[in-house]
Amino acid sequence: MEKWYLMTAAVLLGLTVRWTVSLNSYSGAGKPPMFGDYEAQRHWQEITFNLPIKQWAKFINPDWIALHTSRGYESQAHKLFMRATVLIADLLIYIPAVVLYCCCLKEISTKKKIASALCILLYPGLILIDYGHFQYNSVSLGFALWGVLGVSYDWDLLGSLAFCLAINYKQMELYHSLPFFCFLLGKCFKKGLKGKGLVLLIKLACTVVASFVLCWLPFFTEREQTLQVLRRLFPVDRGLFEDKVANIWCSFSVFLKIRDILPHHIQIMISFCFTFLSLLPACIKLTLHPSPKGFRFTLVSCALSFFLFSFQVHEKSILLVSLPVCLVLSEIPFMSTWFLLVSTFSMLPLLLKDELLMPSVVTVMAFFIACATSFSIFEKTSEEELQLKCFSTSVRKYFTCFTFLPRIIQHLFLLSVITMILLTMMTVTLDPPQKLPDLFSVLVCFVSCLHFLFFLVYFNIIIMWDSKNGRSQKKIN
Amino acid sequence: MAALGIATGGSNWFSALALGVTLLKCLLIPTYHSTDFEVHRNWLAITHSLPISQWYYEATSEWTLDYPPFFAWFEYALSHVAKYFDQEMLNVRNLNYSSSRTLLFQRFSVIFTDALFVYAVHECCKCIDGKKAGKELTEKPKFILSVLLLWNFGLLIVDHIHFQYNGFLSGLMLLSIARFFQKRHMEGAFLFAVLLHFKHIYLYVAPAYGVYLLRSYCFTANKPDGSIRWNSFSFVRLISLGLIVFLVSALSLGPFLALNQLPQVFSRLFPFKRGLCHAYWAPNFWALYSALDKVLSVIGLELKLLDPNKIPKASMTSGLVQQFQHTVLPSVTPLATFICTLIAMLPSVFCLWFKPQGPRGFLRCLILCALSSFMFGWHVHEKAILLAVLPMSLLSVGKAVDASIFLILTTTGHYSLFPLLFTAPELPIKIVLMLLFTTYSISSLKTLFRKEKPLFTWMETFYLLGLGPLEVFCEFVFPFTSWNLKYPFIPLLLTSVYCAVGITYAWLKLYVSVLTDPPVGKTKKQ
Fold it and tell me: With contact defined as beta carbons under 8 Å apart, do B16 and B81 qualify?
């Protein structure tokens, strides 16, 4: 592509920001005995390196503490090694996927493609969690992105393979599995179930089964082992939610302590029902009218539904929603930027616990400036830019005075930003009152949850009202 | 909302660039800092806690005050803000004190004072004509110049990692250059006089200023063929310039003159006891000279032409800052370097006098003076290459020839700064930032001058590409070989010699281009 050097500059800038953030503290630094995610990852390296596969799943055996003499190991050289592994994994999997995705975007200028790549690479949430807090999310998100790329450009088998790898790397990717399933199923239906469609369906099924078998083969030797692994991956015993997270159950528990009132299996049932009810319309729509654009938006709304209503959700799971939102950044820059800012804000308590205040503020500001100058987001708040034209026209059939939507949204944005800044300053400078020690974390979660509900409604509106536009346009043409 | 839109809209790319690089500087806060950090902390302590009469005598710490008085006053002003961050850093006895608040304060002071540099870049952009401007923003000379200056790799790592205050000092110099372009000569002279009393290293470029002001400002008109018109001499201008310099110097040195401390101040400012080359070999002529001497001595020993007993034990390559003697070639004294520097500067100064070409000619002479003093100076630090690189950026967006010289000078100059950051966590940062700046500068200038002949000959391309393998060898291969214990100085030696070749080449090429440029009367006005 022309101006490849600007794309290279964007990637190198992304790498610089990542590495400089990694110079800061990490999760659980110097905090024995539990330490944090950093120690967790090191521990998993220790297990997988030292122990045969049979014993990977049953590590809390008191006899094995002797082997774990390196538990809690912290040193400068080791930190460098760990950080370097994250960077290399990112460089090999996530970053190429982002660059390729942006290069393949249709109907936008080269400058906008490079700007998209820059903004996606500067997204603060992923950088702060992977390079600050310490995790390897870029691997699973990278594989998922390869999956999206493959499936959107009709490389269905490779796309499904990539996505299976993503799921087998981190089971949280199951949040994205329904849209993949519906989109591919829709494609098969479109091709006709009696001919090419059936062939495609069979090929996909084989690919998925084969990749799962390959990954899980070593663990299938004993039934007990398999069950053990499943229990580890899906800890249903741990309850509806843990710690403070910006989803419905945690926010609702401010008013009513569901966790204590309802029995365990009812909680799971309710969560299950709400999740599926909220994502069903979008998924059905995608199966009936598969399109790459619909696929991307459905990824957003499904992941958001799961985040809001599922059980045992962690704050970091918002990254699973942020990735699809990054993908639609070039289509609705204003709302995407807003969402991505809120998603980073929702992780504020976690970031403060890891002493990442300075990198957080700096990366959020950098991201905001990059988006604002690249996409001129404040000029793009008309109805058409927000993709709400059809919706507004439909509503105007009943309420003729419904013309003030853009202005409402602009004011809401200002209000939201002010609230987020105020809450951040309060959390950093003030001490919470004695009776309510978690006041600020709960406030952050509650405010974020309200935002996410608003976005859930917004994205679902886009999805549901999109086809009408498509169909009516086709009729006119 | 509309106002916010205009403020952050695409037309305000300059603010976005400036803000962006400022945020990057904030991210560099937790990186490694050198002993210069302690130097400045010590100066904060000295100027805050002691009376003026003690400033240039205080020697509790080895890092004594060796900058001119204005810088001391600057540190004094900073210290009044510092006391709100951490009072302990202002104690002269707290050697190597670096609490997190101290670090935060010092780093923020550098970032904050860079505002002057940003303003200077803004003014310099106004002096660039946009004749070659395409419709694309990223192809406009102003945009490219802003990136080359604001995001300059050397300035970023020297100021915000290694720790120094070159940002605002370079800002003063660039601002004075911009004022000359804008025909505001008195302001330019004033700014330069102030700059001299902040950091006396800028004496290196004083000849350019002096000759230019005398020739093109005091003589108000030229004869048609460009030569000097003696009767157009303006005494008023000369007197006013002299007055400016006198007043600034009086303000700076006056208090110390009154205290009879001038000799002490000068002995601090100009210490000649240090060795010819700094701890790391600056890639200048003397690096090549010393390398040649070493090669000849090795050959001499092998061929039994030299007596091993007569060779002095002290080796320059041990990295200590001390007196030195060469073995085969004649030893170099400070006087010899001074004379060499003067001789090297003379042609460019003569050119400025006999063939004045307005501010552009002045700029080229300034760069040549800076480079000549880098090449032959005594106790030159690699950081001094920035003195030449930053003004050269202004020329690089003008002509293709200048762009080519600029790229060679900048790439080798920046690479020679690598040994300053020798810690492992900073390794990815310096490599990635270097790649970022180099790819951007080369590609954008190539795009700007795509209609003219290619910027580099095959030899130059080969040389620049050779920097990659050199880096791989010095940082990744050599430390794991057995030679690392016997000859630990080899990476530094190789880096210096390789870069010295490039910098010498750029210097000579620039000289040739200046000397062979036709005089003003015979060419179109620029």
Answer: no
